[in-house]
Design brief:
Length: 87
Amino acid sequence: MSYRVTYTVEAKATAEALAPARRQLLERGLAKLALDPYHKASSHIGTHEDDRRAQVAPGLLIEYVVAHGLLVVVVVEIFDEVLLSDE
C-alpha cells in the first residue's frame, strides 16, 4: 500500500521555496516514505508511533504524521541553510 503524501500549509510553503534540485530530493525521499512510512531510516517522536521524523535528503529533515492512508508532512526543516549562507 502506498500512502498519499500531503502537507500542512507551512510545510508546503517551505517545500515550494526550495531550489528545484533540493525539491526533487525531497520528493524522492517522500516517495520512498510513502511506500513505508515506518522505514528504518525514520524514527518516532514523542510517545505515539505514528508521529515520525526522517532525514529525506542531505540537509532536509521532515516531521510527519501517519493516519488513515495519509502521510502528512508537518515540518520541513532545512538544517544546513545556516552553513551555506555568507552571513
